[in-house]
Design goal:
By secondary structure, the chain is an alpha+beta fold. It is 39% helix and 22% strand. Residues 49-166 form the Cyclic nucleotide-binding domain.
Length: 270
């Protein structure tokens, strides 16, 4: 854009401007430049795409962005629906959910900050996407986003590499489920979650937030809730972690946590 006036990013909720990582600027002053700064962390796909695009293209793309404040339990995409938007997770955790014929929900995957959803260049969603925690989402019109990729070969290449990284991530989650004992699965889950999400530190130790209820986590890891409770306490007794509360775990020994998983968790995120 040649006018020298940057486009203002739209907010789906007026409160969101103050919670999106650009809170130092009044809502009406929030520009594409400020939004680019907000997503420039975590080495995610969107950050790489924006860096690969010409500044004018980046500006046009971000001018189409909308920020959403998502509540726990909100459904973003229904299974079988073709989303008109592409979503990028800025904060929080989303679940990929299969709903069985008896109405029971089965969580088959998690989406964490820097993950993208919306099945670009593809058909309907195979899963329902819903929020496990309060989340912040940056969305773009799907058709516009796809056209930007088509018109920019380097950005399209990065997207294809991202798809390969997703295959590696799926293999990693399969390793998680393959643990022989519940303690192996819990250790794998915490190790992967620590690496893939932002976490707080208290002193030298990371505190990992698990957004799932114990019932949902048990279903996800293929174990009973009481078995998971024993597994968490076993890891605590081993000196691997400290249980802060049912959703927060202070990792005392990261290498011991990886060893307790019993699997090769050396895959690196792209």
């Amino acid at each position: 854009m040649k006018s020298g006036v940057e486009p203002v990013v739209r907010f789906s909720d007026p409160r969101f401007a103050r919670k999106s990582g650009v809170q130092d600027m009044p809502e009406q002053m929030t520009t594409a430049r400020a939004l680019k700064a907000a997503v420039s962390h975590g080495n995610g796909l969107l950050e790489k795409l924006l860096d690969a695009l010409h500044p004018d293209v980046t500006e046009r793309l971000l001018s189409q962005a909308t920020l959403h404040d998502v509540a726990v339990g909100d459904t973003l995409i229904e299974r079988g629906a073709r989303s008109e938007d592409v979503g990028y997770v800025l904060d929080g955790t989303l679940a990929m959910v299969q709903v069985l014929e008896d109405g029971k929900k089965h969580i088959v995957g998690l989406l964490v900050p820097t993950d993208i959803y919306g099945r670009l260049f593809d058909g309907p969603s195979n899963y329902r996407i819903e929020a496990l925690s309060a989340a912040r989402i940056l969305s773009f019109p799907r058709a516009f986003f796809e056209q930007v990729l088509r018109d920019n070969p380097e950005a399209e290449r990065l997207f294809l590499v991202h798809l390969l990284d997703e295959v590696d991530a799926a293999r990693e989650w399969l390793l998680l489920i393959s643990g022989r004992r519940a303690v192996n699965r819990v250790a794998s889950f915490l190790s992967i979650l620590q690496r893939r999400t932002r976490f707080k530190r208290t002193g030298d130790h990371a505190v990992v937030h698990v957004p799932l209820s114990r019932k949902d986590l048990a279903q996800y890891l293929g174990a009973r809730p009481e078995t998971l409770s024993r597994a968490f306490h076993e890891l605590e007794d081993m000196g691997v972690l400290r249980i802060v509360d049912p959703h927060h775990f202070r990792i005392i020994d990261e290498q011991a946590l990886i060893a307790a998983s019993g699997d090769d968790l050396t895959l690196q995120d792209g």
